Amino acid sequence: xxxxxxxxxxxxxxxxxxxxxxxxxxxxxxxxxxxxxxxxxxxxxxxxxxxxxxxxxxxxxxxxxxxxxxxxxxxxxxxxxxxxxxxxxxxxxxxxxxxxxxxxxxxxxxxxxxxxxxxxxxxxxxxxxxxxxxxxxxxxxxxxxxxxxxxxxxxxxxxxxxxxxxxxxxxxxxxxxxxxxxxxxxxxxxxxxxxxxxxxxxxxxxxxxxxxxxxxxxxxxxxxxxxxxxxxxxxxxxxxxxxxxxxxxxxxxxxxxxxxxxxxxxxxxxxxxxxxxxxxxxxxxxxxxxxxxxxx
Length: 296
Description:
Helices cover 79% and strands 0% of the residues.
């Protein structure tokens, strides 16, 4: 079996199988969710239709309770490929606006998480005094935190990109901090003892042993962090009444009951998240190869 066929069989086939099952379930859910409204409409119009016609009607409502997959696909095609990317009607434009705050929040959250992890590793008191508060901070719903951050920063005339980025930071720093603490502590005791035998300084032990050992944990944590950053950016757009971004598309769709637009925006956000995680995975492979590791 060639390498291409093996990759298709081991990776592509399971993904396509799950996707096919999800599409079937989606169509079934669309029928049952939209059927009561369509049945009521037909009764009001005294229309008699066959079962196949009725099923087709539930899949073609202009404002359905649940849009059919092909309706969402048509909306995505229209708002991605038939309009200019810089147009305010384009999902590419709105995704770019959300992406800017996502990346800024991700960078700040990653730096903050690493700083916290390094502090916990070197100052034992921080683990008992600071780490519990970090964990407790993640129990607060982001929907409660986001308006507070927006209002407080608006009071000091800080608006625009930074408030949304800070919300992304709030969600993204935690997995990085926890992952890096685990990674920096991953070297075995025998390896640490060997470094002491060589009379290595704490700085040398950190850079030559702890940091290389933490790389797999780091990339695993930032995959979670970058997806969380995107969620934070979208949530940050909701209380601001933003006119651009995926969050703004969700708001506009909810205001005007445009459920197809809502689902298209959600799919667009999912695609952006998948691309970001894929980019992190590529970076992980490059760093691993640079360090002499072998890809899994």
